[in-house]
Design goal:
- The complex is a heterodimer.
- Chain A contains 15 helices and 11 strands.
- Chain A is α+β, with helices and mostly antiparallel strands.
- In chain A, the strands form 2 sheets. Chain A has a 6-stranded mixed β-sheet, sandwiched between helices. A 5-stranded mixed β-sheet of chain A has the order 7-11-8-10-9, with helices on both faces.
- By secondary structure, chain B is of the alpha+beta class.
- Chain B has 2 domains: 219 residues, Metalloenzyme, LuxS/M16 peptidase-like (Cytochrome Bc1 Complex, Chain A, domain 1, 2-Layer Sandwich), CATH 3.30.830.10; 211 residues, Cytochrome Bc1 Complex, Chain A, domain 1 (2-Layer Sandwich), CATH 3.30.830.
- The chains are: A alpha+beta, B alpha+beta.
- At the A-B interface, helix 2, strand 4, strand 5, helix 4 and helix 12 of A face helix 2, strand 6, helix 4, strand 11 and helix 12 of B.
């Protein structure tokens, strides 16, 4: 949640005609007999290919006592299968000019490789080997356990905003698996067993729970043939149990305080938003930009410029399968308090709930959304990522082609309605950072 | 008036299908000395502009540390006919972005606009670079922002480690200054300091401008000449560069206290080559084996074999006058000494043992394979072209890259590693963590350790080097 640097760009802006879209991302798709989805985008501008394998499981699919197992698996997946032993995955990818990585979110786990096109058969062989036959051994588990615990110390325990983000979800959600962080709790990471790891792999790392995306210098027919050759024999498995992400209603505001060594107080506020497929998501996207995108956004003008209570602000509306939080973060200017930040944030929201947004301001927010969409497609890796994300989180990659027209339809009245419906003072959860100086004293 | 010098370099022949080709690069120097570099790239309908002004924190006057950074921060807060808010609205309504930030030897102004907005975008960039307003209240805001940034950095252990390492290694050399300055120096800066810095250094004869994107070179050159042609040169604008930094000659350990930390950040290294050094390419191949990719020796020993860390890396931080080689990692507090010892020995072994053929081939294949991927976006290509120009590198640096990597042999790597990577007994070591737990074990392992609070490590004069 730290401030995101936005390099903004924009293609063919649809000012009047709703049909013209900034994004045109043609995709060929096929589903193998074992259920593996294969999506291909051709781009011959350079002799490179990007591959992503998305598994439809993230921390959302975890249960109490096993939090962090999805992310632990992201690490386990680099330790060898049957044909390719320990260490060979990274060695072969890099030795053939490629780079490789993985990431875990609340909704999914993804594995990506960016490489010269000649390496495509090798990459698919490696990916299918670990999907079919990952080596899950005592020594692999112990090795990665230590590393993910170190990663948690890095991202949550020794990072102020990371710690605040964890507290916010824990306070805002009661029974949804979105309440815990993808890093998981240290107490769970210490205890995950080999049997639990094997069961997790059997349940979620199946071809019918995965999406393979290829973007770059590759023809769809050749890609489908290669996918069939390397993944076709992996057996389908029973589908995982659906996740129940329902939450009891929130009655009134909730608060939590993080006590950590820090120089400046800060506030992180969250309101339960909507799932990605909800029709109000596009309105919340626009609100995210109206409030927090750029030096001429509402929060920057009010908190940073006019009242000088904050040094920086940021706003996030996540695109997630179940309803996640719409969040606002602000770091206090020296000498200012979290209470002052909260009062100004509330005032800005109240204003949006009461007065219609001027047309040019609304247009600016939409322009910025479209610009970021195009920006995410500058590289073949960015394209493959977006296609797979849409397939897994929206449930259909075609949804990606519809987001622009969804934004276009948002009017001033929608903004007013949605602020009132989701971002009211009774629906908020507030985490404040109470800076503690060395020795326990306050600044 | 017309161009004094126009240099057209047709680097690319007709591209065979699926072959990686860089776009042709056009280089023109305007009469006022502005060096313009243009590459046409039409994959995305964007134009990326990057200007490099040849002055950064190394040009901060003593006592005014942070003024280069403050000048860059204030640059985009009102320019030409527009106030700060009007300028932000104009840029953001186009979906564009303009940003400015100072480094050590230079200041970069970056901008990106839709190709169809090229003329309007260029006009806004021109206002920012040639006609910044530097209104008193805006400079004050920029200064407050800079102070807050310095404070906020203290909350990020990794950033603290990098900053303290720079101060500890380079000492009183200009490279030892934190780019943002120190709170004590920034607080006293005002509009006059910013104006002076700007007037002195922001001149066309001290500036490189790179344009990459969906615009033809002819159109780009004409538009830039129109926008920047009247910008006045000044003979004093070219910085007199100071001598390169001196290396440390013995092992020195600095412990930076973060009493609440449960994880320790570690950095060590010494002064090494500058970017234009002929050893740079071989050094980068060697660095890839030691600590560059994900199969590096450091990752293998620290992460994979022992689970001591999530990350470990090494790098040549090669700058204009000199630079450093550094190793970085982090670990939980109790394994600090073990991790540091091991990282030192991995680095020490590497510089005394030639790499095996397999490791070398893998590193070379990795660098060559990633080369096109690292130039894929317009801003990445623009940054590389600006780097060539700024460091005075050969103009065929990019087109010959792959063949030069291919030619690197094990003996080359061994010789350069021995020369350019420090012996483990001659390094500056910075450890950021809980001093109460770390001081005794560090002293037992490495001898004398000086300890400072995190907030004080940005002042080189207070760090016994």
């Amino acid at each position: 949640m730290p401030r995101r640097r936005r390099l903004l760009i924009l293609a063919a802006l649809a000012l009047a005609a709703e049909t013209a879209r900034a994004v045109d991302l043609p995709v060929s798709d096929r589903t193998l007999a074992n259920g593996l989805r294969v999506l291909v985008h051709e781009d011959h501008s350079a002799p490179v290919v990007s591959s992503y394998v998305f598994y439809r499981s993230g921390s959302r699919n975890e249960t109490n006592g096993q939090t962090g197992i999805a992310h632990l698996f992201e690490h386990m997946m680099f330790n060898g299968g049957k044909k390719y032993g320990p260490g060979m995955f990274d060695d072969l990818i890099e030795g053939n000019g490629g780079s490789t990585n993985g990431f875990t979110t609340k909704d999914l786990t993804a594995y990506l490789n960016n490489f010269p096109r000649e390496a495509l058969p090798l990459v698919l062989d490696l990916e299918s080997d670990r999907m079919a036959n990952l080596a899950i051994t005592k020594s692999n588990l112990e090795q990665e356990r230590g590393i993910v615990m170190e990663e948690r110390r890095l991202r949550i325990d020794n990072q102020v905003v990371g710690a605040m983000t964890e507290e916010l979800s824990l306070a805002a959600f009661v029974r949804s698996p979105y309440r815990w962080n993808t890093c998981g709790f240290m107490e769970d990471l210490e205890r995950i067993t080999l049997d639990q790891a094997r069961a997790y792999f059997r349940t979620y790392y199946a071809p019918n729970n995965a999406v393979l995306v290829l973007a770059g210098d590759v023809a769809p027919d050749a890609a489908f043939a290669l996918a069939e050759r390397y993944f076709g024999r992996i057996p389908r498995r029973p589908p995982p149990a659906p996740v129940d992400g329902r939450e009891p209603p929130q009655e009134g505001p909730r608060r939590a305080v993080v006590h950590k060594a820090a120089e400046l107080p800060a506030i992180l506020m969250g309101w339960r938003g909507v799932r990605v497929a909800d029709e109000d998501r596009a309105v919340l996207d626009v609100l995210e930009r109206l409030l927090g995108d750029g030096d001429s956004s509402r929060l920057e003008l009010d908190l940073v410029r006019e009242h000088e209570v904050a040094t920086e602000t940021s706003v996030d509306n996540s695109w997630t399968i179940d309803p996640e939080l719409f969040t606002i973060y602000a770091q206090a200017a020296p000498g200012k308090t979290p209470e002052a930040l909260e009062a100004r944030i509330e005032a800005v929201l109240r204003d949006l709930a009461e007065k219609p947004v001027p047309p040019d301001e609304l247009a600016k927010a939409k322009t910025r959304l479209r610009a970021d969409l195009v920006r995410s497609l500058k590289t073949v890796s960015g394209k493959a990522n977006r296609i797979g994300f849409a397939e897994v989180v929206f449930g259909d990659y075609h949804a990606f082609g519809r987001v622009e027209s969804e934004w276009e339809k948002v009017g001033p009245e929608d903004v007013r309605r949605v602020v009132g419906k989701y971002l009211g003072p009774e629906q908020k959860t507030v985490v404040t950072l109470d800076p503690v100086r060395p020795g326990g004293s306050k600044p | 008036m017309t161009a004094v010098l126009a240099l057209l370099l047709a680097l690319a022949g007709p591209a065979a299908a699926g072959e990686f080709r860089l776009p042709p690069v056009t280089r023109v120097t305007l009469e006022n000395g502005l060096r313009l570099v243009v590459a046409e790239q039409r994959e995305v309908p964007l134009v990326e502009m990057q200007l490099v002004v040849g002055a950064g924190s190394a040009q901060d006057p003593p006592g005014d540390e942070g003024v280069a950074a403050l000048t860059a921060r204030a640059l985009t807060r009102g320019a030409g006919a527009r106030s700060a808010v009007e300028l932000a609205r104009a840029i953001e309504s186009l979906g564009g972005e303009v940003s400015a930030g100072a480094g050590t030897d230079g200041t970069i102004i970056g901008a990106e606009f839709l190709a169809e907005d090229f003329a309007r975008g260029l006009g806004l960039v021109r206002d920012v670079v040639v006609e910044p307003r530097f209104e008193k209240d805006e400079v004050r805001r920029a200064r407050d922002d800079q102070v807050s940034t310095i404070l906020a950095t203290l909350e990020q252990p990794s950033a603290v480690a990098d900053k303290c390492f720079g101060a500890f290694l380079y000492g009183n050399h200009p490279y030892g200054r934190p780019t943002d300055g120190r709170i004590a120096t920034v607080r006293d800066l005002g509009r006059g300091d910013v104006r002076d810095f700007y007037e002195r250094w922001y001149r066309p004869n001290n500036t490189i401008m790179v344009l990459v994107g969906a615009v033809s070179p002819d159109e780009a050159v004409a538009a830039v000449r129109q926008a920047f042609g009247a910008w006045k040169a000044h003979p004093d604008a070219l910085p007199v560069r100071v001598p390169p930094p001196a290396p440390v000659t013995a092992r020195r350990v600095l412990l930076v206290d973060k009493p609440d930390a449960t994880q320790t950040q570690i950095r060590f290294g010494n002064v090494s080559l500058k970017r234009s050094d002929p050893d740079y390419l071989v050094a980068s191949v060697g660095n890839t084996i030691l600590g560059g990719g994900f199969t590096s020796r450091l990752i293998e020993e620290l992460r994979i074999k022992r689970s001591l860390t999530y990350g470990a890396w090494s790098m040549f931080n090669a700058r204009l006058l000199g630079g450093d080689f550094r190793v970085g990692t982090f670990t939980k507090s109790p394994t600090t000494v073990e991790t540091l010892r091991l990282a030192l020995s991995v680095e020490g072994d590497f510089r005394t043992t030639p790499p095996d053929a397999k490791g070398l081939d893998k590193a070379k294949a990795y660098l060559r394979g990633q080369f096109p991927l690292r130039l894929e976006s317009p801003e990445a290509l623009a940054a590389r072209l600006a780097e060539l120009e700024f460091h005075g590198l050969p103009q065929d640096e990019l087109t010959t890259y792959e063949s030069r990597v291919r030619a690197v042999g094990a003996a080359d790597v061994a010789a350069v590693a021995a020369r350019r990577m420090p012996a483990p007994g001659e390094v500056a070591i910075v450890v950021v963590g809980k001093a109460a737990e770390l001081k005794a074990p560090l002293e037992e392992a490495f001898g004398a350790v000086s300890t400072v609070p995190a907030a004080e490590c940005d002042d080189p004069s207070r760090l016994a080097r």
